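Note to self: keep these together.
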Amino acid sequence: LKLANNPFDFDLDYDLFRQYKNLSYLDLQNTNLKRVPYLIGLNQSLITLNLAQNSICHINALNLKRMYPKLRNLNLNQNPLRCDCNLIGLRQWLDEIILSSSNSIQ
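Structure:
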Protein backbone atom coordinates (compact mmCIF):
# COMPACT_ATOMS: atom_id res chain seq x y z
CA LEU A 1 0.00 0.00 0.00
CA LYS A 2 1.59 3.25 -1.11
CA LEU A 3 0.61 6.34 0.90
CA ALA A 4 3.83 8.24 0.22
CA ASN A 5 3.84 12.01 -0.23
CA ASN A 6 0.55 12.51 1.60
CA PRO A 7 1.49 14.60 4.64
CA PHE A 8 -0.61 13.70 7.64
CA ASP A 9 -1.55 16.46 10.07
CA PHE A 10 -2.32 13.85 12.72
CA ASP A 11 -0.87 10.69 14.25
CA LEU A 12 -2.02 7.57 12.45
CA ASP A 13 -4.74 5.81 14.39
CA TYR A 14 -3.42 2.45 15.56
CA ASP A 15 -6.66 0.85 14.33
CA LEU A 16 -6.48 2.32 10.81
CA PHE A 17 -5.30 -0.85 9.07
CA ARG A 18 -7.06 -3.47 11.20
CA GLN A 19 -8.90 -4.93 8.19
CA TYR A 20 -5.69 -5.32 6.14
CA LYS A 21 -4.29 -8.31 8.00
CA ASN A 22 -2.35 -9.60 4.98
CA LEU A 23 -0.67 -6.33 4.02
CA SER A 24 3.06 -6.93 3.73
CA TYR A 25 4.24 -3.61 2.20
CA LEU A 26 3.48 -0.13 3.54
CA ASP A 27 5.03 3.02 2.09
CA LEU A 28 4.72 6.01 4.42
CA GLN A 29 7.56 8.01 2.90
CA ASN A 30 7.26 11.78 3.25
CA THR A 31 4.05 11.71 5.29
CA ASN A 32 5.13 14.01 8.13
CA LEU A 33 5.41 11.22 10.72
CA LYS A 34 7.21 12.07 13.93
CA ARG A 35 7.36 8.53 15.32
CA VAL A 36 7.14 4.95 14.14
CA PRO A 37 3.43 4.10 14.08
CA TYR A 38 2.05 0.98 15.73
CA LEU A 39 -0.69 -0.27 13.45
CA ILE A 40 -2.87 -3.12 14.69
CA GLY A 41 -3.64 -5.57 11.96
CA LEU A 42 -0.23 -5.24 10.35
CA ASN A 43 1.71 -6.53 13.32
CA GLN A 44 1.75 -10.11 11.98
CA SER A 45 2.04 -9.47 8.25
CA LEU A 46 4.17 -6.39 7.60
CA ILE A 47 7.50 -7.24 5.96
CA THR A 48 8.45 -3.90 4.34
CA LEU A 49 7.97 -0.50 5.93
CA ASN A 50 9.17 2.68 4.22
CA LEU A 51 9.43 5.60 6.66
CA ALA A 52 11.94 7.65 4.67
CA GLN A 53 11.78 11.47 4.57
CA ASN A 54 9.81 11.94 7.77
CA SER A 55 10.61 13.64 11.08
CA ILE A 56 11.39 10.57 13.16
CA CYS A 57 14.01 11.32 15.82
CA HIS A 58 13.81 8.30 18.12
CA ILE A 59 13.40 4.61 17.52
CA ASN A 60 13.01 1.98 20.19
CA ALA A 61 14.19 -1.19 18.48
CA LEU A 62 12.69 -3.48 21.11
CA ASN A 63 9.25 -1.95 20.56
CA LEU A 64 9.73 -2.12 16.79
CA LYS A 65 10.66 -5.78 17.02
CA ARG A 66 7.61 -6.51 19.18
CA MET A 67 5.24 -4.44 17.03
CA TYR A 68 6.31 -5.95 13.71
CA PRO A 69 8.01 -9.32 14.29
CA LYS A 70 8.07 -10.21 10.56
CA LEU A 71 9.53 -6.87 9.44
CA ARG A 72 12.62 -7.43 7.29
CA ASN A 73 12.89 -4.21 5.26
CA LEU A 74 12.89 -0.84 6.96
CA ASN A 75 13.75 2.42 5.21
CA LEU A 76 14.62 5.30 7.55
CA ASN A 77 16.57 7.45 5.09
CA GLN A 78 16.41 11.20 5.60
CA ASN A 79 15.00 11.14 9.11
CA PRO A 80 16.67 13.26 11.82
CA LEU A 81 17.50 10.26 14.01
CA ARG A 82 19.20 11.26 17.24
CA CYS A 83 22.50 9.54 17.71
CA ASP A 84 22.13 8.11 21.21
CA CYS A 85 22.29 4.75 22.95
CA ASN A 86 18.81 3.80 21.69
CA LEU A 87 20.26 3.34 18.22
CA ILE A 88 22.43 0.49 19.52
CA GLY A 89 19.29 -1.65 19.80
CA LEU A 90 18.30 -0.72 16.26
CA ARG A 91 21.72 -1.73 14.98
CA GLN A 92 21.54 -5.06 16.83
CA TRP A 93 18.08 -5.74 15.42
CA LEU A 94 19.25 -4.94 11.89
CA ASP A 95 22.23 -7.26 12.36
CA GLU A 96 19.83 -10.03 13.43
CA ILE A 97 17.76 -9.51 10.28
CA ILE A 98 20.85 -9.64 8.07
CA LEU A 99 22.08 -12.78 9.79
CA SER A 100 18.71 -14.54 9.56
CA SER A 101 18.38 -13.54 5.90
CA SER A 102 21.81 -14.90 5.03
CA ASN A 103 21.09 -18.16 6.87
CA SER A 104 17.84 -18.65 4.96
CA ILE A 105 19.65 -18.27 1.63
CA GLN A 106 22.03 -21.16 2.30
